[in-house]
Amino acid sequence: MNKRKSDEYTGHFKKYKPNGTTVLYQRPPILHIDPAKDTFIFQELELDNYVGNVYPGMPGPQSGPVPIIRMFGITKEGNSVCCHVHGFSPYFYINLPTTFSNGDLGPFKDKLNEALINDIRGGNRDGITDAVLIVEIIKGKNLVEYHGDDDEPFAKITLSQHKFVPAAKRLLSTQIIYQSLSNHNFQFFESNVDIETRFMVDTNILGCCWIELPPKTWYERTDFSAHSKTSRCQIEVDVAWDNFISHAPEGEWGDVAQFRIHSFDIECAGRKGIFPEPKIDPIIQIANVIQLHGVKEVMARNIFCLKSCAPIGHAEVYCYEDESKMLEAWAQFVRELDPDIFTGYNINNFDFPYLLERAKHLKVQNFDFLGRLLNVRSQIKETTTQTKIGKRMYKTINFEGRVPYDMLLVIKRDFKLRSYTLNSVCQEILGEQKEDVHYSIITDLQNGDEQTRRRLAVYCLKDADLPLRLINTVLSFTNDVEMARVTGVPITSLLTKGEQVKVVAQLLRHAREAGYFMPAHQGTPAQEQYEGATVIEPARGYYTDPIATLDFSSLYPSIMIAHNLCYTTLIKSTIMKDKLGLTNDQVTSTPVNSLFVKSSVRPGLLPHILQHLLAARKKTKALLKDAKDPVLKAVLNGRQLAYKISANSVYGFTGAQVGKLPCLEISGSVTAYGRAMIEQTKQEVEQHYTIQNGYETDAKVIYGDTDSVMVNFKVKTLERSMELGKEAAELISTKFISPIKLEFEKVYYPYLLINKKRYAGLYFTKPDKYDKMDCKGIETVRRDNCTLVVDVIGTCLQKLLIDRDPDGAVNYAKLVISDLLQNNIDISQLVITKELSKEDYAAKQAHVELAKKMKKRDPGNAPKIGDRIPYVITAGNRNAKAFEKAEDPIYVLENNIPIDARYYLENQLSKPLVRIFQPILGDNAESILLRGEHTRTRTVVTSKVGALSAFTQKKETCLGCKSVLPKGYENEAVCAHCKPKEASIFQQELCHHRMLEDRFSELFTECQRCQGSLHEEILCTSRDCPIFYIRKKVQMELDNSKKKVARFGDPLAVEEDESSNQDIF
Amino acid sequence: MFEARLASSATFKKVLDAIKDLLNEASFDCSDAGIQLQAMDNSHVSLVSLNLKSDGFEKYRCDRNLTMGMNLASLSKVFRCSGSDDTVTIKAQDDADTVTFMFEAKKQEKISDYEMKLMNLDQEHLGIPETEFSCIIKLPSGEFARIVRDLSQFGESIVISCTKEGVKFSTQGDIGTGNVKLAQTNNFDKEDQSVIIDMQEPVSLTFSCEYLNSFTKATPLSNQVTLSLCDNVPLVVEYQIPDLGHLKYYLAPKIEEDEN
Q1: Residue A80 has pLDDT above 70, yes or no
Q2: Which residues is B51 bridged to in the sheet?
Q3: Please, where are the H alpha helices in A365-449?
Q4: Where is the Proliferating cell nuclear antigen PCNA C-terminal domain positioned along the sequence (chain B) (predicted)?
Q5: Domain annotation covers residue B130
Q6: Most buried in the list A357, A882, A1036, B227, measured by CB within 10 Å?
Q7: What is the model's pLDDT at position A8?
Q8: B37 & B107 share domain
Q9: Does the model's pTM come out above 0.80?
C-alpha cells in the first residue's frame, strides 16, 4: 500500500482512495476454510498453464521445470480463486509395427530422451534430465477408417514439458532415433492437442464447470505457507491433477456463479481532426459500470475524471488534476474490484491498448498489473486468428485470470448487421439511439467548465452502460457459458478461436472413452468439391392459399446417425472391404459410393456424439418447458441452443477442407442423402395426396430447400392445411430410417415465392394468430443497400402478407418512387456505408474515392482506415461511374447537391421491387412500377457547388404557376395571371412554413431528449441517426421557406415569423 | 392556350438532338416572346440556353406564360415520327398535363398527331448575366466539331488559346500531344467558311473535351459557331438558328487542381 500526499489537489471533489474508507468495490470477505476438514468448491472460468517448479508431494516428475495448470474461478460466495494443478504431463501417441516389443520400450525412451535434450535450443540450461517421462504400449484403434475390431498397438509417449511434443514429432519423422524403427512409417496421434485441452479432456473438466477439492487433497497458500501467493485472488490453492472432482453441469451443478463483470469506456482529448494517439493525447475520463452475472441491478457506477466534474446522480465521480494519478487510481481500483470479466465496446482494440500505451508513455508505475498474477504485466500482442467472422488481426492482451469479453467481437460473431458502431448496434438490438459526440469536440467539452465535463461524463457513462445492457439483452454470456459446458472448451476460446476447437474437444473426449486415437491431420486442402444441398425448382408466385412446410428435424445429424457415417466406420475401398471379409449387408454404400460399415458391425463415434447431443437437447427442452424462473429459462435456452449448434457443426467439421480432420466421404455422403430425401419427399407427397386417393385436390410441392419442403395442399383453411401437414409428416417419416424424422412445423399463409432461397410468408404455427413474418434472402440485411430499400421492401411485404393488400403494396411502392424523384426522401435513407479497409485500392470503389475527396477538402476530418464511410450517390454526368458520384451525405445536405434519383431507382430499388412484385404483377411489373404516371413529377435540385454555380443567377418564378417572372416584377411573389389567387397561394406557403417549423421543433426536442438535457446545446453528429439528417434538411428547407414567405411582402406576418425562427437557429 | 407552328419540324428535331445528350428532362418556358429553355446538365458543369423567338414561327400564340416539363428522350421519340419536310404544330391548353404535336406533310394529305404526357418539374430557373468577353472567335461549325473530336482522342481536356495571330486548340494525354492552329482568314467572300477573331486581350483556358463534344451535336443547326472566352467566366458556345433564335452552351473552365 502506498500512501500518497493529497498534494496539488485541494478541490472539494471526491478522490478514489484505494484500500481506504470505502469497501464499496471489494469482494466479500473470505470465510475460514481448513484444507484438512473442508471441501473446497469453485466454478472455473479461465484456465492456462505455466512452467514452474515441482511442488512437493505431487505426482509427476519430481525434478526440473514442470508444466503446471492454473485454473481461475470464483466460489459460490463470490470469492476469487486461483488453483494450481500439479503433476499433469503432456503426451501423444504413435503407431507401432508389430515387431516392436516391450523390450524395446526402455532403449527407445532413452534414445528419444537423448535426442530431445540435444535438440533444446541454446543448450540444456535448466539441466533437464528427463524430457521423456514414460513410453508405454497401449492398445487401441485409429479413429479414421474401419480396420476390423482388433486393437492395434500404439506407443503413448509422455513428456515432461509441452514444448517437447512438437520437437519429438519433428525428430521422429525426420531422423532415425531408434534403429529398429528406421523403416517405420510414423503416424502421430493427438500430437496437435494443446496442453489445456488435453488436461480438460483427461480430467473431464468442461468450460465453466464446478470443481470440488475434497478435504486433505489440497493446500492453501497463505502469507505463512512455504509457497507464497502468486496471485491477487482471495484464495489460492494447490492440488494434484488426479485428486479433484469435476462436476458435469447438471442439477445442482447447473447454475452459474455471480461473476463480476466490469464494463468500462475511456474518453481521450484528441486534437482537432486527428484520431487520438496515446503518445500525445491524454485520457480524460474512464467510466466504469459493474454488474454481477445473473443479478439484475447494476452493482456500482463510477467515473474517473481529469479535472473537476459536477456531481452525477447515478454515479460516483472521482476527480484528479493529474492524469498519471488518475490512471494509477484506476488501475488500483481495478485490482481491488478484482473483476472476472472485462467488457466494453471495442476494448480489445482501442480502450485497453490505449490505456496501456498511455500509462507507459506517462511512466505510470505498476499500471499494467491488471491481471490476477502479482508479477505479470499486461502486454499487447498482435495475433491473427481464423474464426467464423473471417481472418482478423487482433490485439490480444494478457489478463491472467480475467476474461476480456469485448462486446464488439460478440456482436460481430452473433449478428449480421449493416453497421457495427455502438450506436447502430444499440438501435438494432435495444431499439434505442444514443447521442454520438464526435471525437473532435470532446476536447472542447473537456476544456470547458465542470458542467461541460459532467456532460461528457454522462455520455461516457452511457457508453460503459450499453455493453452491459447488450450482454443482458442478447444473453451472449449466458449462452457462451452453456456453449463452453456443452462442448467442453474454455469460455475464452469461444471468442478467440474458431468453430473447430469445439468439435475437436468433443471428439477427443469421446474418442478417449471409446479407445480411439485421433490422428494429427496434416496436409493441403484437397481440390475436390462435393455437391451441396439440393433445391427443388420453385414454382414462383403469390400464394393466397396456405402453404404447409415439412421440415426434417436436425437433418444432417440424423442422416449421420441413421447411416452410421463416421470416421471409425469408413472403408476406403472395396478391396479393403473384401480383405476384412465384410458382406454386403454389413456395409452401406452411400449415394456418392463411399462405404461405411453398419452400426451392427461397429457403431460410429460421430453418431454416438450426435445422439448424445440430440438427447441432451431434448432433455433440456423438456426442462425449459417446466422452468419458471427467467434466469433459469435463459440458461436452459442457451444450453439447448448450444446443443443444436454443436450437433450441426459436426457435419461442417467433416467438410472443412483446411480443418483438423476433414473427411469428404462423410460430408459428401451426408449431402447426397439429403438431396435424395428431399426428392423422395416430394414424390411421396404428390403421389399420396391426390383426388384419386380421396383427398380434396392434388397436392403440389412448390419448393424445397436443404431440409424443408413447401407443400400446397390447395385447401382454403389454415386448419385443414395444418391437419394435412401433420398427417403427411407422420406418413413420410415412416419411409425413412430412424432417427430421420419429418416434422410439420408451420404454414405460410399467404406465401410469396420469389426464387430459390428467396421467399416471404406469414408464419403460422397455430391457426388463430400468426407468429411472425418470415423473409428469406430478401434485401433486408445486405449492407451495400441503403435503408430506403430495406424500408420499402419491409413495408411492401407487410402490406402483401399481413394486410393481404397487393394493390396497397403496389401503390406504396409507387409513392416511394415518386417521392424519390421529387427529392422528398430523407437523405439518411439513401446513405450507403462501407468500411474503408487498406486492401481496397486495386479497383476504384465509391467509398475509397470519397475518402480521398474528403481528405482533400478537410484533411483533419477525413475518414481513416477502419472507419465506415457513409455516402450517397449524387447526380453526375451521364458517363460518370458510380464511384465518381459518391459524396458525403453532410456535404450533400449543406450544398444542396442533387441526388442521383435514377441511380437509386435503377440500381437500388428496381431489382428488389420488381422481384417481389413479379409474382403479383407478372412481367408488367417493371413498367408499372418504374415508368408509370407517378414518375412524371420530379424535382430538379440546383447545387450550390459545381463549376458553373458561381456564374449563374437564379431567376425568380411565380409561386403559383412556376413561370419565370418578367423583368421588373422579380420581387413579386406571383405572376400577373396568378395575382387573383395570391391570397390562397400565400396561405399555402405559410401553412407549409408552419408545418416545417413544427417539424423542426419536434426533431430538436427529440435530440434533446436523446442527449438527456433540455437546456443544453445539441452536440450530436451521429451519422447513423436518421434524425440527424432530417434535422439538417428541415433546417435548410425552413430557410428557403422563410425567403419564399418573405416575398409576399406582408410586413406583419414576416416579422412575426422571423422572430420565432431566430430562436431556433 | 398555347399554339406554335413551325415550318420545318426538322429544325426542332436538330435542336432536340443538340441538347438531349446533356439533359434528361427540361422545362420549356413559353411566353409572348417565344420559347425558352435554360438548364444545367446533371453534374452542374454546363448550362444549355435555348431561345426560339416567336417571330420565327409561322404562327405563334401564347395567352399566358407557361412552363412545360418534358422528358427529352420521349420527346425525341415523338419527333422521330416526323418527316424531314413536315411542319409541326405544338399545342397545349393552359392547365393541361399533356402537349400535342401535329405533323403535316407538305405534299401529301397526311396529318399525324402525338400527345405526350408532361412532367411536373420543380426546378429553379437560372440565368447567366451578360458579360464582356476578351475574345470572340467565329469559325465554321464543322471545323470546330472536327477539332474537338480529333483532340479528344488524346486527352481529357482542351486548351483554347487565343492571340492576335489566331486561335490554338491543344491537348495532351498519355500517348502524346496534339495542336490545331487556326489563323484568321481574310476570305470574306464566303462568310461561313472564314475564321474571324475579335480580340481585346489574349486568353488561354482549359475545358473538358467531353462537354465540348456534346456541344458539337448542335453543328447541323448552323454553319458558324461563335466561341466567347474570358478569364474566370464560362465559355459560351453559340449556334445561331437561322430565322428562329439561338442555342447557347455555357461551360466553366477547368481549374488546374481539378485535373487531378
Answers
A1: yes
A2: B36, B246
A3: 407-414, 422-429, 439-446
A4: 127-254
A5: no
A6: B227
A7: 40
A8: yes
A9: no
Give the integer Cα–Cα distance in Å for A703 and A687.
16
A531 CA to chain B: closest CA distance, Å? 49
CB contact under 8 A, A940 and B41: no
User: Does B244 lie in the same domain as B140?
Assistant: yes
Q: Is the same domain home to B22 and B86?
A: yes
Record the cell numbers describing residue A249, joined without a space: 453441469
Are B55 and B146 found together in one domain?
A: no
What's the CA gap between A137 and A140, in Å, rounded?
A: 10
Tell me how close the Cα of A895 comes to any Cα of chain B, in angstroms. 12
CB-based burial label for A53 (10 Å; 0-12, 13-18, 19+): exposed
Nearest CA-CA partner of A262 in A356, A339, A352, A371: A339
Q: Which fold, A777-935?
A: Topoisomerase I; Chain A, domain 4 (1.10.132)
> Structural domain tally of chain B?
2
Residue finishing a domain among B117, B147, B169: B117
Per-residue pLDDT tens over the stretch A633-663: 888 888 888 888 889 889 989 888 778 888 8
Closest partner residue to B65 among A936, A945, A964, by Cβ?
A964
Chain-chain contact of B31 with A963 (C-beta, under 8 angstroms):
yes
Q: Is B178 on the interface with A (CB under 8 A)?
A: no
Q: By the 8 A CB rule, do A678 and A563 touch?
A: no
Comparing A882 with A490, the larger pLDDT belongs to A490
Alpha carbon distance B67, A175 (integer Å): 93
CA distance B118 to chain A (A): 7
CA A213/CA A43 separation, integer angstroms: 11
Is the bond preceding A750 in cis, omega lying within 30 degrees of 0? yes
Write down the H helix ranges in A515-629. Answer: 555-562, 574-579, 605-626
Domain boundaries, position B57: 2-117
The residue among A364 and A3 whose pLDDT is bigger is: A364
Q: Do B129 and A953 touch (CB under 8 A)?
A: yes
- Cis amide leading into A863 (omega within 30): no
Residues A88-145: pLDDT tens digits?
999 999 998 888 888 889 999 999 999 999 888 877 777 788 889 999 999 999 999 8
The Cβ of residue A781 has, within 10 Å, a number of other Cβ atoms equal to 12
Are A300 and A25 in contact, with CB atoms under 8 Å apart?
yes
Same structural domain for residues B33 and B96?
A: yes
Report d(CA A840, CA A834) in Å as an integer: 11
Amino acid in the structure at residue A356: L
ipTM over 0.90: no
CATH architecture of A37-257: Beta Barrel (2.40)
Residue B122 included in any domain: no
> Which pLDDT does position A11 carry in this prediction?
45
Listed residue (A122, A133, A43) closest to A88, CA to CA: A133
B125 reaches A (C-beta below 8 A): yes
Q: 484464495: which residue's cell?
A: A235
Instruction: Of A392, A357, A654, give the one whose Cα is nearest residue A526.
Output: A654
> How many C-beta atoms surround the C-beta of residue A379 within 10 A?
12
Longest Cα–Cα distance in chain A: 119
CB neighbour burial string for A342-352, b if at least 16 within 10 angstroms, e if fewer: bbbbbbbbbbb
As a residue count, chain B comes to 260
- Beta-bridged to residue A267, according to DSSP, are A285
Which tens digit of pLDDT belongs to each residue from B59-74?
A: 999 988 888 999 999 9
What is the DSSP code (8-state) at residue A798?
I
Arithmetic mean of pLDDT, A985-1012: 87
Q: How far is CA A363 from CA A356, A373, A906, in A?
A: 10, 21, 58
Q: What is the CATH number of domain A260-474?
A: 3.30.420.10
Nearest to A876 among B24, B42, B129 (CB): B42
At the topology level of CATH, where does A499-773 sit?
Answer: Palm domain of DNA polymerase (3.90.1600)
Domain with B71 in it: what CATH number?
A: 3.70.10.10
Distance, CA of A342 to CA of A1015 (rounded, Å): 35
